[in-house]
What we know:
The chain is 33% helix and 26% strand. The chain starts with a strand and ends with a strand. It has 14 helices and 18 strands. It has an eight-stranded antiparallel β-sheet, with helices on both faces.
Amino acid sequence: xxxxxxxxxxxxxxxPLFVRGLARAGAHVYGLSDVAAHELPEMTRRHxxxxxxxxLRDEAGTVEAVRRWVGRPGGxxxxxxxxxxxxxxxxxxxxxREALGVPGMGVEQARKFRxxxxxxxxVAQAGLRVPYHRRASTAQEVxxxxxxxxxxxxxKPIDGAGSMDTFRVDDAKELEQALAxxxxxxxxxxxxxIDGEEFTYDTICAxxxxxxxxxxxxxxxxLIARQEEWISPQTMxxxxxxxxxxxxxxxxxxxxxxxxxxxxxxxxMEWYRKSNGEVVFGEIxxxxxxxRTVDLMNFNGDIDLFAGYAEAELHGxxxxxxERKYYVANIFKRAQGQGRIRHIEGLDExxxxxxxxxxxxDLLPVxxxxxxxxxxxxxxxxxxxxxxxxxxxxxxxxxxxxxxxLYAG
Length: 409
Ligand SMILES: Nc1ncnc2c1ncn2[C@@H]1O[C@H](COP(=O)(O)OP(=O)(O)OP(=O)(O)O)[C@@H](O)[C@H]1O
Ligand SMILES: [Mg+2]
């Protein structure tokens, strides 16, 4: 029986499902995170064999606390795997593996999945196309980097997530504005702005082999979706990966995983396709995509990747169907007005028009306070739709974007 240490088993939202997947696949799962055990989601608690509360930001302290915990009453007898599917904990997981002699990704390799400059260096070394890039720690270094790279440029935290503190700058004035708003960010990556469409390439791997792969598509580009509140951003799961639209991105994904020598687990890569067809690497994480994208992948093939991942992680195999049956989209909604949700309009009519194409509705109920749409892509909720035909799916997704409205006040 495999014993697993699982970092952050309660957050993000998908984590309880992964914990359950591992437990059902036969692992003893021990949890580690900042919160008290009673604050964990119920599904997580039910599937843990033990739990340690420790401040994950204090990495050295947490390594020591886990070291003392293993082999003691209440702790795991020993550890076979350390798993972290939450972006900020990937380095700590690697430190724990090294400190406890557990196989899997070490710190040096993990940094290539966290540090946006290191990852691009490693990918570029393999001869793959990345945006021109430079790291910078002072305002002057940023100015020098932009000078060298040219406009338009992107400035973003070296280890950011969710497009936070990410700016496109088109001229010297915008550069100074961005610098003023980024004073609290200690280190940034300055990049050539890539004009194109944005995709993901996601996998489950075991022992250096890709067992499952997936391509997602963002409508519109995340940076734009994050700037305009009226937009209902869409994330899509694609059905046909062997088209001129995505084929080269899949190939890039294969080459990137090989260049970074990824071994076992989930990966989530982002890539761009320019209008001339050139594909460019964006970034990669050693974790699943967030914002309910794993649900899209499940709806695409009528599979359960929370179980599929567990099988790959624990046994090195993937026995679920590889068939892609649908195009699937999540449409994220942002209410008009502030405060609490007062009224939801258009859902009944959409159900009448699209019936079984609407596979999930997860909107805030009337009376609930609005979420912060800048901090969470989920915003005030989402609708999931699927259809075997691409153009039909796009049309349904756009109808949900325009004809479903939430009002707050
Ligand atoms: N070099 C670039 N050229 C064009 N757009 C870029 C570039 N770098 C970042 N962006 C835009 O900013 C967004 C956020 O950047 P990036 O994906 O690197 O950061 P992130 O905060 O990790 O994002 P997330 O967590 O949302 O995936 C991208 O999705 C893209 O829209
Ligand atoms: Mg990104």
